[in-house]
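WARN no homologs supplied; continuing
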Amino acid sequence: MTPFEAVYGQKPPLHLPYIAHHSMVDQVDRSLQARESTIRLLKHYLQLAQCWMKAQANKKRSPRKFETGDLVFVKLQPYRQMSLKGHSYHKLNPKYFGLFKVLQKVSTVAYQLELPPHGKIHHTFHVSQLKKYIGNIVVVPDLPVSLSTHGHIVLKPEAILDRQSVQSRGKQVDQVLIRWFNCPEEDSTWMDTHSLSQQFPHFSP
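OK structure emitted
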């Protein structure tokens, strides 16, 4: 589905390129010329916006290149459950795991890694998820036990550290501070008690 279909509920009209003096009606011909001018202008500004966004994104990026046999860390993001409100998973920082050997270069921005046998995720990663290891200390490669097939850390509540009551949309909402399995205490997050019971019905602190 295109954005046009999502907004207007129908397929976008077919655009036929303007042909000079194709219409015998002068008003129609001028209308077609104006439409072509508008389309060219829109494409121009879209291109400018894309270039600006690319330039802004590249300011925070550094060129990364790996060779076969290099050891790297892999950045994995905690799983985000978007179907329920009140979650604070976005506050958890991505974690690096490793070390893993680079098997081959798939493309200019993707590399295939040698993962442990129990790793149930895809072996190819974007360069933005990789960090080269510099050193000579041998580290046993490992991945988190709770890992989804998409490479996200699946969070599970371990304990409730604190409780509070806050105002949300004019209502009093009870929240609990959750410590997650395999996460340091500083990554604990506040969560609505209602969302907690929905997402983890078997959790009993």
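Strands lie at 71-76, 95-107, 110-114, 124-126, 130-132, 157-168, 171-180, 189-192.
OK
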